[in-house]
Amino acid sequence: MEGVGLPSFVASLVFMTFFTNTHALENLATPSSKNSPTSRILKVGVPWKSAVFTEFVSVEKNGTNFTVGGFCVKVFEASIKTLNYSIRYIPYNGYDKNYDFIIHQIVLKKLDAVVGDFAITSKRSREVLFAQPFLDSGLVAVVPLKHQDIISFGWVFTKPFTAKLWLLMAAFLLTGGMVVYILEHRKFRRFEGQPRNQFGSILWFSFITWFTDQDDIRTAMGRIVLVAWFFVIGILQSCYTANLSAILTAPRLEPTFNDINSVVASNLRIGYRTGSAVADRFVEYYGVSKHRRVPLPSAEYYNALSRGDVGAIVDERPYMESLVAEHCDRLAFAGQTFTIQNWGFAFDHMDNELVRDISIRILELSENGELIRLQQQWLPYYNSDHCSKYNSDPSGNSQLQVKHFWGLFVIAGLVSAIVLLFYTVHRKWNTSIVASPTPLAEGSSGPTAS
C-alpha cells in the first residue's frame, strides 16, 4: 500500500501543479473584470522625478500612498479603462535608477508593466514587449541663443529681399527698359546714336526710373507701360524701407549652432541626461571624446547652458520642447530631430493579448482625437511655434521673397505685353497703308503734252 500510494501522490501533485500554472497563465493573458473575484491587479512601475518634466509623469507622496499623474499616465489610463483592470502603481526613483533598470523589473517578474516616458529601443524590445507608440520622440540638440550682429554686416542693405527677388527685379527693370525703348526710340532723343550708346541709355533709363519720374515720354503707349512700372516700383520701395528698418532696429536672436554636425565639430562639451542610454550611444556614435561628454540631471540643463559648462544639450525631443518652451528667449533647437524614436508602454512578453488590446485602444484614441486632446491639455507647447518670435532669422524667414510679389510682376508683364502687341500691329498697319499705291480720282486727266 505504501509503495502504491507514493506514485499516486506524486501524480496528483504533478497534476495540481500543472493545473495551477495553466490557470495562472490564463489569468496573465486574459483581461478580467474589475469587480470579478478573479480580477488581476497590474503592478505598474513609473519613474519618480519630483522636480523636472512632471508634465510627462508626476508622482506625489501622501503619507504611505502615492498619487500618479501626467500625460503618459493619463494616456495609459484612458487606454486600459475599457479593459477593467485594477492598477497598482509602484514608483521607482528616476534619478538613482536608470530607465533600463526599471524595465528589467518586468523580466524579474516584479512588475507587470512600465508606464512613463520610456523610449522604444532595440535593446529594450529584446527584454519586454512594447504596445503601440503614443508619442513621437527622437534626439535633438538645444543650444543657447545669441544676439545676431546684423548691423555690422556690410551687406545689410541686401537683407530685405532674397537673392532670387533681386535678380527678378533686375530682369524686370531691364525688360521694362527694352519695352520703352521699342515704343520711344523714334521720338525719344535719349535713345538715338550708336547701338552701344542706345544700350547704355536703356540701362540708365531702367535704373533712374527707381528714383525719378520720366516726364519726357512722348507716346501714350509708353506712358501706359510706365504707369504699371511705377506701380510695382512704389510697392517694392515701401516694402524694402519697412523691412530694412525692422532689421536694423528690432533685436534678433539666433542659435549658436545651426545643426548637430556643427555642434559635434566644435570643441565644446555636450551634455546629456544621466542614465540615458540613447543619448550616451549617440555621443559615442558621433565620435565625441569622453572628456567632452557631460552627464547631467535634467534639472541642471538650463543652468549648465547658462553658465557655459556645456555648449549643447542632447536629449529626447519631448523633454527639449518643455525646456525651450520655458526659456524661449534664451534657448533654441540646433536643427531638426536627427533620430526617429517613439515612446511606448512596456509589458511582459507573456502579456501579448493585453498588449494587443492596449495597442488597439491607443489607435482608437488617436483616431477619435482623444490623444490630441490629452496632448493639448498636458503638453500645450508640443509641436507648436510659440517661440518663433524669439528665434526668427532675419536672413531667412523675414526676407521678402518672389512668392510675395509674383502677382505684381504678372500684372506689369501683361500690361507691357499687351501694349507691345498693340504697338506691333498698329505699326504694321500703318506701314501697309503707306506702302499701298493711291488710286487716281475718277475724271482726272493725266499730264498733257506740251
* Average of per-residue pLDDT values: 77
Q: Indicate the proportion of strand residues.
A: 5-15%
Provide the gyration radius in Å. Answer: 38 Å
Based on DSSP secondary structure assignment, what is the total number of beta strands? 15
Structural class: alpha/beta
The major beta sheet can be summarized as: 6 strands, mixed
C-alpha termini separation? 173 Å
Report on this model:
It is a single chain. This protein is an alpha/beta fold and 450 residues long. It is built from 14 helices and 15 strands. The chain has helices spanning 2-29, 71-80, 99-107, 122-127, 163-184, 195-208, 220-249, 260-265, 277-285, 301-307, 317-326, 352-367, 370-378, 406-435, and strands at residues 41-48, 58-62, 65-69, 86-93, 113-114, 129-130, 135-136, 139-147, 253-255, 270-273, 293-296, 312-316, 331-333, 342-343, 346-347. The strands form four sheets. Strands 8, 9, 10, 11, 12 and 13 form a six-stranded mixed β-sheet that branches. Strand 2 (58-62) and strand 3 (65-69) form a beta hairpin. Helix 2 (71-80) crosses helix 12 (352-367), helix 5 packs across helix 6 (195-208) and helix 7 packs antiparallel against helix 14 (406-435). The radius of gyration is 38 Å and the shape is elongated. The N and C termini lie far apart (173 Å).
Brief digest:
The protein has 14 helices and 15 strands.
Index terms:
single chain, 450 residues, six-stranded mixed β-sheet, 14% strand, elongated, disordered N terminus
